[in-house]
Amino acid sequence: MWKVVLLALCVYANIPSIEGGSSPNSEYVKLLFGDSGARYSNNIIEDANLDVPGLVKKYGYPIEMHNVTTPDGYILGMHRIRHGRDANNVPDENKPVIFLMHGIVSSSADWVIMGPGAGFAYILAEAGFDVWMGNARGNFYSRTHVRLNPDAILNTNYWKFSWDEIGNIDLPTMIDYVLVKTNRQRLHYVGHSQGTTAFFVMNSLRPVYNDKIISMHALAPVAYMAHNRNTLLLFMAPMANDVEKISSLMGIGELLPNNAIMSWAGQNLCMDESTFQPVCSNILFLIGGWNVEQLNKTMMPVIFGHSPAGSSVRQFVHYGQGIADKGFRRFDHGSRMANRKAYGSRRPPNYDLSKVTAPVFLHYSFNDPLAEVQDVERLFRELGRPVGKFLVPLPAFNHIDYIWAINAKELIYDRVINLVRAVERSGIDNLVL
Ligand SMILES: *[C@@H]1O[C@H](CO)[C@@H](O)[C@H](O)[C@H]1NC(C)=O
Ligand SMILES: *[C@@H]1O[C@H](CO)[C@@H](O)[C@H](O)[C@H]1NC(C)=O
């Protein structure tokens, strides 16, 4: 219950600043892109209720489902769109393989819910890629385990993981699976938010994985969070370890699961004619930063039908620790003894970013409370092989715009595709940026 109260408080605290009217920003966007036309959902309620395979099938794209079990027993669901619908629409063994990894409390749905022409997975499939989408342990598509029960009462063992495990165990398991299935040695990786954090974790803790990455594109890169401006996380940071202890005592290991209440709220409160719609957009802006022009409010029932998709309390606590101590280090178990047991040291060790030697491209923006420019610059300096740093050419672009912005294609996806194609064409060593 405290979660709901907390969220409600924060949301209402933000209400006075809604609906800024037309800004120079919207004129600028119109000038650049014109009217982007109807390339979105053709039925809001239907799309809010379909799962990823259902959605992909509905819009005429080929879908494959794959389950893969991690060494510690989590069963992860992956989705694959093997080819396009309108272009590049035959299976072809030689397509470049691209792996997409979602952010916190999200899922593979991020890459498809905006519909053909707007969702990155569809755009990539049309552009000639073999598209794989991962799902982190604990979310809607990866909420099973060979032994542990995510719904066990007063036993949160299933939920005792943060993005350390997602990077250290889930990503390597999924990537190896994709490479075997596609008969490749290497692939391209795109991550959003926590999908970037987990990548840096994987490559610093398990450097052999650097060789399996042709290029990595970090959308809203999150490693250092010293300058984080996200209200909820800031609020939690000083007491991150207490949050973990209290929630564990209360038997709460999961945060923001995908559930019927959210979907109901999405479809009843967030629809176009609803007076509550501003509350819905406030929740999104509260998390990701303000950018009224780039959010298609009509799509909010679909967004809330798929997000949040579930995560552990620890994922948030781990970010909270990074905000509090301004570092990028492994999960702090809260006691010297527990840390010693896990890491052989009193304090959790830093993730050594110099070990991330895969070629990394960072894509960042000015209005992202979770990936502040200074933090992104520090990350860029410390990475083993940073190749390029690209500012999204729209100052108001925020954290969630990478996934849901009306002009995400023009503002970010097209550039990523151009970079991946350039790497495919000339190789990373001969790349001219
Ligand atoms: C917003 O989404 C609706 C429903 O998918 C779509 O018809 C409309 O064209 C979109 N608006 C913009 C500005 O893209
Ligand atoms: C994957 O696992 C889930 C949950 O255990 C199950 O419902 C689903 O049928 C499995 N899918 C495939 C393709 O094996």
From TrEMBL:
Active site: 193 (nucleophile), 368 (charge relay system), 399 (charge relay system)
Family annotation (Pfam families): Abhydro_lipase
Annotated signal sequence range: 1-20
A single GO BP: lipid catabolic process
InterPro entries tied to this protein: AB_hydrolase_fold (IPR029058), AB_hydrolase_lipase (IPR006693), Lipase_euk (IPR025483)
Keyword Disulfide bond attributed: no
GO MF, one annotated term: hydrolase activity, acting on ester bonds
Domain of life: Eukaryota
Gene3D superfamilies, alphabetized: alpha/beta hydrolase
Domain Partial AB-hydrolase lipase: 55-114
Keywords: Glycoprotein, Hydrolase, Lipid degradation, Lipid metabolism, Signal
Family from the record: Belongs to the AB hydrolase superfamily. Lipase family.
Protein's UniProt name: Lipase
Species classification: Eukaryota, Metazoa, Ecdysozoa, Arthropoda, Hexapoda
